[in-house]
Amino acid sequence: MSVDITDHLVVNALGVLDNPNVAETGTLVQTSGSLTIDARTLADAHASGVTAINVTLGYTMGDFDPYPHTLREIETWGSIIATHHEHLMRIDTAADIAEAKRTGKIGIIYGFQNAAAVEDRPERVATFARQGVRIIQLTYNQANQIGDGSMAPGNRGLTPLGREVVEALNEQRVMVDLSHSGERTCLEAARLSRQPVSINHTGCRALVDLPRNKTDEELRLVASQGGFVGIYFMPFLNASGHARARDVVDHIVHAVNVCGEDHVGIGTDGTITPVDDLDAYRARLAEHVALRRQAGASAAGERSDTFPFVVDLRGVDQFRELARLLKERGYSSTRIEKILGRNFCAYAEAVWGG
């Protein structure tokens, strides 16, 4: 029996608004030629109960000039929201998340998964903030000019420029997201920041020792300063690479034990609309993994035989199913509501304001 989440604020601290079955459905709107936002995408998002999603835009990896590419994607997302204004709204403040819930719209939070577009100009943080960017992740898996990502072998921490960027993010009240960062980068940025920081999509390294998961020291430090930790629905939650819903629950439980129930949420790192034909998807997955490896952007644990999602926790019921499993684990309705979205909203209010 599913759990009713109708009245809950459900915030996906890192997700994807996309129909991955584009070849079957056709494309109405695309961003950068890779995302499909069509009638099914929107209907599935509404049906899931999600209130707001931090969507990735701008440069993450690849042969793009980071700054102009990022500006183009910000403009594209503005057009998407304008086109689908009856379904979507941009989130700028914590109060906007409540407004999205009240009006039945899906809140879109502009976020980066790589601060490479800042280049050597921390003042660009203000430019991005003025255009609606509310979350900036410092690094992707590899190193950049700001610090080392989780797969960078040096684990060198923040660069001097990186320290300036964190200060600029604080000045503009933009979330400092430490997902994908190396351990030293994460710890140093959390200690430097004058505002709470987040790890919007991660797992717990105490359960599965992979670089994309965070140590208890990282989790505890972020939480102790009023920050937020989102658990993802990714293969890194199980050492075999074949993560299941019970693994997501295990990592949430561990994070709550380390961080406390006021600092843990979800950042699925996936779509709501599921892949319909998993066999056909398997055939494409090997090519996708190979391209990421060639670009130097893949993480340990990414393999051609592991789906980048949790097979039994996807589709329009994913948040209700997670709530049901947490209830089975003995979590109260209040704690479940916090994990589904209230904790992110409290963190957003602390950084962005109401």
In short:
With 354 residues, this protein is of the alpha/beta class. 40% of the residues lie in helices and 12% in strands.
Keywords:
single chain; 354 residues; alpha/beta; TIM Barrel; three-stranded parallel sheet; globular; Membrane dipeptidase; hydrolase; Pept_M19; metallodipeptidase activity
How would you portray this structure in words?
The structure is a single chain. The protein has 354 residues and is α/β, with parallel strands linked by helices. It has a single domain (11-277, 310-352), classed as Metal-dependent hydrolases (TIM Barrel, Alpha-Beta Barrel). Helix content is 40%, strand content 12%. Strands 1, 4, 5, 6, 7 and 8 form a six-stranded parallel β-sheet that branches. A three-stranded parallel β-sheet has the order 9-10-11. A two-stranded antiparallel sheet has the order 2-3. The longest helix is centred in the last third of the chain and has 20 residues, at 333-352. The two termini are 36 Å apart. The model is unreliable at 24-32 (pLDDT under 50). One of its GO terms (molecular function) is metallodipeptidase activity.
Straight-line distance between termini: 36 Å
In percent terms, what proportion of residues is strand? 5-15%
Radius of gyration: 18 Å
Structural class: alpha/beta
Write the layout of secondary structure elements.
Elements: E1 11-15, H1 22-25, E2 30-31, E3 35-36, H2 39-48, E4 52-56, H3 66-83, E5 88-90, H4 94-103, E6 106-112, H5 124-130, E7 133-137, H6 160-171, E8 175-177, H7 183-192, E9 198-202, H8 216-224, E10 228-231, H9 245-259, E11 264-266, H10 278-294, H11 318-328, H12 333-352
Parallel strand pairs: 1-4, 4-6, 5-6, 6-7, 7-8, 9-10, 10-11
Antiparallel strand pairs: 2-3
Helix pairs in contact: 7-8, 11-12
InterPro entries: Metal_Hydrolase, Pept_M19
GO molecular function: metallodipeptidase activity
EC number: 3.4.13.19
